Amino acid sequence: MTKTDDGWFSEDTATFGDRLAGAREGAGLTQSALAERLGVKLGTLIGWENDIKEPRANRLQMLSGILGVSLPWMLTGHGEGPEGPADETPLPLNVSDLMTELRALRTEMLISTEKLARLEKRLRTALKDMP
C-alpha cells in the first residue's frame, strides 16, 4: 500500500466500486468472503462494486479497516490504498479519455435518477392532496 493521488484508482479514473473491488482483490478476499465479514448479503456487496448501491458510513469504516485502506482513498482515491495491478499496461490516451467520459456519464445518470425519484415523490404527494 502506498499513498496514491492519481493513477489507476484516482477519482478521475475509478469509481467507488472500482476502488472497492481493487482493494478487495488486493486483500485476497472473494466477494462472498468480504460480504460475510461485513455481515451483508452478497448482492449488496456486488451492488456496491457495480456502483448501483452505496454503503452506509459504518460499513465504509468497516470496509476500510478490513481492506487496509484509508477511508479517503475508498471515497476519492486519495490517501493510503493500492496503486493498481502491477502487470497492467497503460491504456492508450484515447481509451483513457473514453473511460473518463463514460464514468462521467454514469455519474450524471445516477444524479438524474435521484432527481427523477424526488420529482416522482413530489408528484405523488401533489396527486394525493388533490380533491
Structural summary, described in words:
With 131 residues, this protein is mostly helical. Helix content is 61%, strand content 5%. The protein contains 6 helices and 2 strands. It has helices at 16-26, 31-38, 42-49, 57-67, 71-76, 93-128; strands at residues 2-4, 79-81. The protein has a two-stranded antiparallel ribbon. Helix 2 (31-38) crosses helix 3. Mean pLDDT is 80; it is low at 1-6.
Report the mean per-residue pLDDT as an integer. Answer: 80
Strand order, biggest sheet?
1-2
Which quaternary structure do these chains form? single chain
Portion of residues in helices? 55-70%
User: What coarse outline follows from CA principal-axis ratios?
Assistant: globular
Distance between the termini: 62 Å
Secondary structure: number of strands = 2
What string gives the helices and strands in order?
EHHHHHEH
How many DSSP helices?
6
What does this entry show, briefly?
With 131 residues, this protein is mainly alpha-helical. It contains 6 helices and 2 strands, in the order E-H-H-H-H-H-E-H. Residues 1-6 have low confidence and may be disordered.
Q: How are the elements arranged and paired?
A:
Elements: E1 2-4, H1 16-26, H2 31-38, H3 42-49, H4 57-67, H5 71-76, E2 79-81, H6 93-128
Antiparallel strand pairs: 1-2
Helix pairs in contact: 2-3
